[in-house]
Amino acid sequence: QVQLVESGGGLVQPGGSLRLSCAASGFTFSSYGMKWSRQAPGKERELVAAISSASYTINYADSVKGRFTISRDNAKNTLYLQMNSLKPEDTAVYYCHTWKGDYWGKGTLVTVSS
Prior knowledge:
- The protein is mostly beta strands.
- The chain contains no helices and ten strands.
- The protein has strands at residues 3-7, 10-12, 18-25, 34-39, 46-51, 58-60, 68-73, 78-83, 92-98, 108-112.
- The strands form two sheets. Strands 2-10-9-4-5-6 form a six-stranded mixed β-sheet, with no helix packed on it.
- β5 (46-51) and β6 form a beta hairpin.
- The termini are far apart.
């Protein structure tokens, strides 16, 4: 059974940091490119960052470039998103998913507020 389970979300003050994790199981994680997307209340889903299977290719949305870092540990079947200098507009549910969208996690809520 394929599972993607996000963790690490929570409430953080503006300027703070959070590290999201996504634990994968039930498929060959190391063979899949992975992405983080987010959806804020009342807004469309937005792609945040993407990483190829061996981490050779990494892309970011302009809105997070320089603040967020995507990474992966294929030995641990885990995807990460390090988020620094958080802003209120980063408030959203964050989802990890495969590059082509075959598999999605249920999301973890990040709230940036003072």
